[in-house]
Amino acid sequence: MKQGGDAVRCELCVAEPTPAAWLLVAQDARLRVIRVLDAPEFPAFYRVIWTAHVAEFSDLGEADRQHCMAVVVAVERVLREALQPTKINLATLGNVVPHLHWHVIARFDWDSHFPQPVWGERQRASSVQDLAWLNAGLANVDERLRIAMDALASF
User: Fold this and answer.
1) CA 78 to centroid of chain Cα atoms
2) Which domains, ranges and CATH numbers included, belong to the chain?
3) pLDDT of the residue at 8
4) How far apart are CA 49 and CA 154, in angstroms?
5) Model's pTM, two decimal places?
6) Which residues pair with 89 in a beta bridge?
7) Measured between alpha carbons, how far is 43 from 57 in angstroms, rounded to an integer?
8) Which residue stretches of the chain have pLDDT < 50?
9) In angstroms, how far is CA 103 from the centroid of its own chain?
10) DSSP assignment, residue 18?
11) CA–CA distances in Å: residue 21 to residues 55, 57, 66
């Protein structure tokens, strides 16, 4: 990626995270699903990251767009079935990191920012008990996401 004539390192292009930033959950030839680890108040925060460096969804061909959305939907479904959140937030901003990625975040009415976005204003203190419950189930969620990605492998 070039910006102003200087090479800029894209943090989403790297295959390895900075320490404790994220955990690779599943991947295929076109994209990867990670769990974000550096947002402890939102442990069920996942990203679907397109592997090639493209900035916009419309940069993808039709088949790639369909595949990307199938994965985003699969992540949302797994989170809904496994965690029964109050709401799922989907976002693809790319203002800070112009590399195509989707945020898929399970939200709960007890979380620190609900109903505000995770980037919004805090509404209450985090519930230690609820966060512990949520964290305890994430290994199962990750495994269910791997199975869902395997099911999409031929797509």
Assistant:
1) 12
2) 2-151 (3.30.428.10)
3) 54
4) 19
5) 0.90
6) 105
7) 26
8) 1-7
9) 4
10) S
11) 21, 24, 28
